[in-house]
Amino acid sequence: MLIIITKGNYLYAYHRNFLELELSDFRMHGRYRIVSVDNDIVSITDNILPLPKVPYDFKTSEVDKLIENPPEVFNKDIPPIVHITLPKNSRFNLKRGEPIQESYSSEYVRVLVFSDFPPKTLKLSLYIDDKLQNNVEFQYVGNKKLTKRDNTIHVNTRDDQNQNVNEHYTVNYKTPPLWIAKWNNTIYNDGKSHSLKVIAIDSNNMKGETSIKFRLDGKDDSLGVSFISTLLLKSVFPRTLPVFFGIVYIVYELMIILSRWYSVKYIIPNHPDLPFLPFRYIGDMIFNETEKFRNGGYFKRHFVGPFIEAFTFNGVFYPIQILLICVLVFPGRIGIMSRSSEDVSRVGGEFLYGTYTSGQWSNLFDQYGMYIINFLLLVYVDTFILVSMNHKNWFVNAFKIVMLSFLFLFQMVYTIALAYICGGIMAIFIAPFPNWFCIYCWIIILIIIIRRRVDGSSKPVTPEIAPVQV
């Protein structure tokens, strides 16, 4: 499983020994990347195609037809494309393999500028920390002999049919369009991060620019993502997702099992006539056993006591506990899990730890993440509503009924849609988790609402407040 975090022009993905930078779709988003290796320093710049709209309809995807009959957009001038190769962008330092310290000692800013206009017509400016460096002048060295490289740079395309290099589309460059500028970098060796921006303007006054972060102490600059995003980036999800699910599952089990344990030990033996479902308020029947929770602190009054009262009902505890065990053992849903094929059955089961179809297992660690979401949105929410409504201090009014109705509709639509998308119409009915769990919890909530309405309307008037008969 790959978690990608978007920040600005880059998509980040974390690995232990290297940094992966994902790129948006070229066709749909028009984004492309320039990658250079300058004296073993890797630099990247992401740009967007200067098209009137993205995606642009070229009418054809065949290169030969585009070359023979280029669209009008190809004839328009584009701004210069700027790519900084030195200094190194300190946000993307590689953990190993790069001579970072050697790059810091370089006395030159090195930039590639791609433009349709001759180099002598271009004007380059350097900004450091948004201040123009008037004493720094760029010099074009793209017409000089390369060192440490071959004499020719090849840019090849491949034939889609045989995957061989198509020499017809091979472009040769003697030298890259390199510009250099001498600068005094020692004044920036202050242990802080600085910004460096290069702007190139051509003879048509079209401007291209790019900027980077750099620092000369060898440290990495922050990727600019939040703590939660960083935690996600550094997580190995096949390992962390099961752990997170286990925490969510165990916390819920502890809440209901500890409540049930107290009921079994101190309440149920003294009250053999307790109802199976919450048709009556159980607090009045077990008044003496729960007195210490009513007179305790806020946590005992509003959390511990109501949970004990709710899970003293056999009809609340046992069905919910059985469904929780089914989450770990049985499939969460059964339905059409794959496309039709001669050798593969379409019908399968989706378990917490994978899917089972045609006698084969497919491990899907994403399931743990989906089950965590379902636990938080459905199991926890419905349980707290059930426990709160069952307690004596919860008051029923029209607003709460309306909000509960909206929540019920949302959960039903969510569970039905999720089951249908994952397994078709069959999965809607054969889905213990979360469909059956959600339905049963709302049945209990409905019983409690009816009970409270009936109790409220039939409650006798006490003599103290009864009207006086004249």
What's the layout of helices and strands?
Blueprint: E1 5-7, E2 10-14, E3 19-22, H1 26-29, E4 31-38, E5 41-48, H2 63-68, E6 81-86, H3 100-104, E7 108-114, E8 123-128, E9 131-132, E10 138-140, E11 153-158, E12 165-173, E13 178-182, E14 194-201, E15 207-214, H4 227-233, H5 237-267, H6 291-294, H7 298-311, H8 314-329, E16 333-336, E17 347-351, E18 354-357, E19 360-362, H9 366-390, H10 398-429, H11 432-457
Antiparallel strand pairs: 1-2, 2-3, 4-5, 6-7, 7-13, 8-9, 8-14, 10-13, 11-12, 14-15, 16-17, 17-18, 18-19
Helix pairs in contact: 5-7, 5-9, 7-9, 8-11, 9-11, 10-11
Task: Write up this protein.
The protein is an alpha+beta fold and 470 residues long. It folds into two domains: 144 residues, Immunoglobulin-like; 221 residues, no CATH class. It contains eleven helices and 19 strands. The strands form six sheets. The chain has a four-stranded antiparallel β-sheet with strand order 6-7-13-10, with no helix packed on it. The protein has a four-stranded antiparallel β-sheet with strand order 9-8-14-15, with no helix packed on it. α7 packs across α9 and α9 runs parallel beside α11. The protein is elongated, with a radius of gyration of 34 Å. The termini are far apart. The N terminus and C terminus are likely disordered.
Distance from first to last alpha carbon: 80 Å
Coarse structural class: alpha+beta
What ranges have pLDDT less than 50 throughout 5 or more consecutive residues? 1-8, 157-163, 458-470
Biggest sheet descriptor = 4 strands, antiparallel
Number of helical stretches of at least 4 residues = 11
